[in-house]
Specification:
Length: about 150
């Protein structure tokens, strides 16, 4: 049982604490439901917030696993401190594409959904976004979809 996240890179300042609280509750619920493997695309915003929450939960439950799904290899050279700190703590890092290609983010999102039975989505209602597209893929593949309105 694997749980993945999708969500927007930019969350309004006034919604960040709410989103973080909802993600914490969703991760706790997933753990209580028996999920031990968590996957994040490691994009800024929701993905990194989710990874941070999972790693915090892992401090009390060493059976929890965090996998980073990285869209293209050069992304591993990111110097942003939070990204580096969280990536270093991952149990697994899966690189989707060796080089950047225009659809590498779609391929990453497709990988996340294909390998998850539950997808947590932080969604602000935009129909044209990677998050909306990932939610459509999850529905098409009949994955359990837990939506947090942002």
């Amino acid at each position: 049982m694997t749980c993945a996240v999708t969500g927007h890179r930019h969350i309004k300042e006034e919604k960040r604490e709410y989103v973080r609280q909802q993600l914490q509750e969703a991760v706790l619920q997933a753990v209580n439901d028996g999920y031990k493997w968590f996957m994040s695309g490691f994009a800024d915003g929701v993905d990194l917030m989710f990874a941070d929450i999972v790693l915090d939960r892992k401090k009390n439950d060493s059976s929890i696993i965090l996998e980073a799904a990285i869209p293209f290899r050069n992304r591993l050279n990111e110097k942003e401190p939070l990204f580096v700190k969280l990536l270093e703590q991952c149990d697994y890092v899966h690189v989707i594409c060796e080089n950047f290609v225009p659809n590498c983010f779609l391929l990453r999102n497709t990988y996340l959904v294909a390998n998850a039975s539950r997808v947590i989505a932080v969604y602000d209602g935009r129909r044209r976004s990677g998050t909306a597209q990932t939610m459509r893929i999850a529905k098409e593949q009949e994955r359990e979809l837990h939506i947090i309105r942002a």
